[in-house]
Design brief:
The structure is a single chain. The strands form two sheets. The chain has a five-stranded antiparallel beta sheet with strand order 3-2-5-6-7. It has a domain of 79 residues: RNA-binding S4 domain (Structural Genomics Hypothetical 15.5 Kd Protein In mrcA-pckA Intergenic Region, Chain A). The protein has four helices and seven strands. By secondary structure, the protein is an alpha+beta fold. Helix 1 packs across helix 2.
Length: 121
């Protein structure tokens, strides 16, 4: 059995919509067995699909071919994920924090805020 690569990417929940999967293929972000894939490229069991989706490189081996979108627990059984781990998330640390309920900032604090925001010298 075989399926279109855009349909398969959507079915196993690697993309949110089939349109997104088609755009990724047309944009050159999807390869099947090392070759650039168009949306209608067939996918069979044993194929390796590499896709740059969701800001992340995904490398998956096709274990099961499905053409309809299924639940996440079933979709995970249709591929083996060989993707590199996602990069660690950056934590935003507030640079200038004020205690809640401490009133309006003083003139000195407003100047500090303006310097942080690059509004004044």
């Amino acid at each position: 059995m075989e399926a279109r690569v855009d349909q398969w990417l959507w079915s196993v929940r690697l993309t949110k919509t089939r349109t997104d999967a088609g755009r990724a293929c047309r944009g050159g972000h999807v390869t099947v067995n090392g070759r650039s894939a168009k949306p209608a490229t067939p996918v069979r069991e044993g194929d390796t699909v590499e896709a740059y989706v969701g800001g992340r490189q995904r490398i998956v081996e096709v274990v099961g071919v499905i053409v309809k979108r299924v639940g996440a627990s079933i979709a995970v059984d249709c591929y083996v994920d060989n993707s590199p781990p996602p990069p660690p998330r950056e934590v935003d640390v507030p640079v200038f924090a004020r205690d809640p309920g401490s009133g309006r900032p003083t003139k000195k604090e407003r100047r500090q805020l303006d310097r942080l925001r690059g509004r004044r010298h």
